Amino acid sequence: MTTISVILTSFNDAAYVSEALDSILAQTTPPSEIIIVDDASTDGTPAILAEYAARDGRIRMERLAENGGAARGRNRGIELASGTLLAFLDADDRWTPDKLTLQTAALDADPHLDAVFGMVRQFISPELSAAEAARIAIPNPIAPGYVVGGLLIRNAAFDAIGTFSVEDRSAYSFLEWYLRARERCLTERLLAKIVLERRIHRSNMTRSLTGMYYLRAVKAALERTRVLPALPDILHDMLKTQTVQTPAGERIKLHSNIDELSCSLLAHFVKRAHASRIIEVGFAYGASALAIASAAATCARIEHHIFDPYQQRAWQGIGIENMRRAGFGDRFTFHDELSEFGLPKLVEAGYQCDFAFIDGNHTFDHVLLDFFYINRMLAVGGIVVFDDEWIPAIRKVTHYVEKYPAYQRLDMPPHLTIAGKTIVVGNHRRLAAFQKTAQDERNWDWYEEF
Questions:
Q1: Nearest to residue 280, comparing CAs of 311, 259, 251?
Q2: What is the mean pLDDT of the chain?
Q3: Which domains, ranges and CATH numbers included, belong to the chain?
């Protein structure tokens, strides 16, 4: 049974908290409980909260003895929450009436989804004078609501990520949490509906926030994508000895595999995409699959689809066996069919992926067809990597993808840190990586020379 816990934090918000609570109580999908954590307010906020609590039995109020910041208050609310879903609201903001209805419907429709965001509309608080209001610039009144008030998340998913940072009393704590959540493969969706109205007033914490906190969080997250665990022992042994073991235990010469640096770069891009839903075309001895699976090993849930109709008769089932030996046997789905037949089935099923690696048939038409279907499934922000760009046919495809308005070629990182050792990437020309930056909405007659 779905139950929703709403956590509202307040500090000296007497002028606004009634509007916030009224927006919670007006939800078309009512919450099961409303937990209010007052952060040692010194104005009339506690009296207003007590009045609401006396009127509605779902409201539970806790007053902190010392002011500790919004993150600390939210963490305390989470400790008290019993719902299967968690939602948050600051006392100076308000929700649209259908916020919980829209977001619970999205979670109900996709059991794989962990969290849902919506759009946010910013507005200038009416108590500001005309002169004060004139000094406030809101370049994007309606924007993606990747803020705490725009979130609805499964309690279990939040628990797997961890609580908000209390390092400083700023909106940095949510950004730090969100970046950490993405690293842990949070599966999320942004609704194109306004769910939050964010008030701009004299005391907005984020208006006075310097960029230092944001830059620090983003920089730390980017650096973490370059820090990779050691490659799996089986993969390391394959690359070192240039041999591979058959399911029967025979050692044979390794061939047609990607090299160690390429394996590490694949792992880097999987981490950068925060990927838990993966498509891989081509399997062979499983070198790339092992690198990808190891990078996604911290994900609680993973869907890794691998296509290779030649796995048994040409590669003796060694790729499957290596994944099993490495402990990834239950973390991938093998498709014994050509990708041009299998990928359309995933499209028809409504599958969406965060990362794709194309390393199957290397003719121009096959590579382009693989990308055609993967493009239809790749989420915005997702990454697709092509192997062997040095081959003219594949380089022709990547030149075409560069023209797509919804894709951006990614530079190779200057270095990677693997098991404490720094590796300089240098002038790597084997892999080509692209990130999807927007929905693919080209006109029906779109064409660019390539």
A1: 311
A2: 89
A3: 4-222 (3.90.550.10), 227-436 (3.40.50.150)
